[in-house]
Amino acid sequence: MTTCIVRIDKPKNSPKGTHGWQVRVGGKRGYHSKLFSDNVHGGQDKAKTAAEAYLEQYLEEHPEARIKYRRRYHKGRRMSSNTSGVTGVYYTEYSHRWDKGRVVGYWCAFVPHGPKGQKRWHKKFNIDRYGREKAKEMAIQFRKNWETAMDEALRDNSDKPLDDFFEEYHYKQSNRGKSPKSGDDSRESS
Predict the structure, then answer these.
(1) How much is the pTM?
(2) Structural domain boundaries of the chain?
(3) Can you tell me the distance from the alpha carbon of 125 to that of 181, in angstroms, rounded to the nearest whole number?
(4) How confident is the model at residue 173 (pLDDT cuts 50, 70, 90)?
């Protein structure tokens, strides 16, 4: 189930139209949303505060909406084009970010639920950095560890196993070798 607050500005840079924060709670069986208009609430900041308070109240009244990781996944089912031998692990190549003539290869682990409840999330392991075999091993291990955490989350009907998994295997590992910035919430999610 997805819960979020998004900014709505339609049309952009125009005083007319819809401007505010929208609370969205949705899932397989239903969808709920409510708009908190800047005009009605006395400005953008006050509208956001009202939206956050409403979402918290809504989640208290509907605790089932707190669970981010609801859906099951296709365990063990591989596509015919799978070359890794492991469900959710694949090899891909992209043009280099700055040097478009250079191609960079990655072994990737696909998971249907990302660290913040996103759908269809990919963790990339660069073969230039880790080597072809090590990058593949890391992608396979990431996917297997994710499946274990997902099975626990589904069994316990709780987000904690997946939150713990992403804290350990995504946030800490993706920040290795980088100087931590206080309050930095930008994380690699391909």
Answers:
(1) 0.55
(2) 2-66, 89-174
(3) 23
(4) low
